[in-house]
Amino acid sequence: MSNSEIVNVVITGAAGQIAYSLIFNVIKGDMFGNDQKIKLVLLDIPAMIDGLRGVVMEIEDCAYPLVSSIVCTTDVKEAFTDAHYAILVGAMPRRDGMERSDLLKANAAIFKVQGKAINDYANKNVKVLVVGNPANTNALIASTCAPNIPKENFSCLTRLDHNRAKAQIALKANVNVKDVHNVIIWGNHSSTQYPDSRCGYINLPTGKTPISNVIKNDQWLQGEFITTVQKRGAAIISARKLSSAASAAKAITDHMHDWVFGTPEGEYVSMGVPSDGSYGIPEGIIFSFPVTIKNGKYTIVQGLPIDPFSRALIDSTHSELIQEKTSAFQFIE
Ligand code: NAX
């Protein structure tokens, strides 16, 4: 990416609540840097177009210099043409009384259309991040419908879960969150995900110390820590009567920033990426793994120890993803 060139950034679900934080992170420079000019392309459904126009007025009123132009559209072809980055936030929410299969069906239809449009119109090096739930399976559908775009260019968001895990460890250990490193989210962005602290460490004044040696409470690390992170989204809905928005936008910003600029030496982040057989997860699903990133390419961290406790949790979230895939793919054939 050259900073002298404008990058085309598509955000779907642009009239929604995550986008209302995300757009402003992007145009401030938090995602692509303080000297990267951006063409912002905002996609939503026709019923939301008036709301979207209001968002555009606010973007203009921020007077941020990085915005070179703004396109506001309901047309996927217009949206994805020449896209360098596509952040797919918009999805069909689960309504009262809706069966899970109905939700999968509605989202399969959305991500099939968007995947196909990315395939046909986007820049061939486009980087795609799927946020809309079920994020892993939606990303798989979009990628499957975009055979001309490399599979590794499709990812889904588990960075929010990763950030939540870091924050819980920092609170428990009474350290600053910046000193917590290498927690991992394995699997699905759902309540079966496995937040894993075993390989993580905390920077103490005395040096790098394994998380378990600082917290000294394995029962908490294998119990309440995991369930708190798994259920954090539901806890926020229960408290706020709305789902996570600012924290989701921050996590999206972190995910894309690191994908573009790389991770610091030795640092892992969690990303939902196509499985490649690592850790016994066969190809064919999008699974959250620990990754490092260099020159715009991520690498799944290899060789981490998997004990029986972790194996069981990784296998369980893997099974859920296989089931989701089986249910959703009957709607895209
Ligand atoms: P909102 O309901 O506030 O906004 C969603 C927006 O998407 C709406 O404006 C809607 O009109 C639009 N939309 C629906 N179908 C569309 C389509 N076909 N094309 C373009 N736009 C479309 O939801 P919000 O709180 O912003 O959440 C968005 C999605 O993120 C949801 O699916 C949510 O479950 C998911 N999340 C995923 C997270 C993750 O870590 N992967 C965390 C946060 C969030 O819960």
Automatic annotation (TrEMBL):
Belongs to the LDH/MDH superfamily. MDH type 2 family. It comes from Polysphondylium violaceum. The keyword Membrane applies. Residues 158-331 form the Lactate/malate dehydrogenase C-terminal domain. Substrate binds at residues 94, 100, 133, 164. Its EC number is 1.1.1.37. The lineage of its organism: Eukaryota, Amoebozoa, Evosea, Eumycetozoa, Dictyostelia. InterPro entries: L-lactate/malate_DH, Lactate/malate_DH_C, Lactate/malate_DH_N, Lactate_DH/Glyco_Ohase_4_C, Malate_DH_AS, Malate_DH_NAD-dep_euk, Malate_DH_type2, NAD(P)-bd_dom_sf. It comes from the Eukaryota. It catalyses: (S)-malate + NAD(+) = oxaloacetate + NADH + H(+). The chain crosses the membrane at residues 6-27. Residues 8-154 form the Lactate/malate dehydrogenase N-terminal domain. This is Malate dehydrogenase. Keywords: Membrane, NAD, Oxidoreductase, Transmembrane, Transmembrane helix, Tricarboxylic acid cycle.
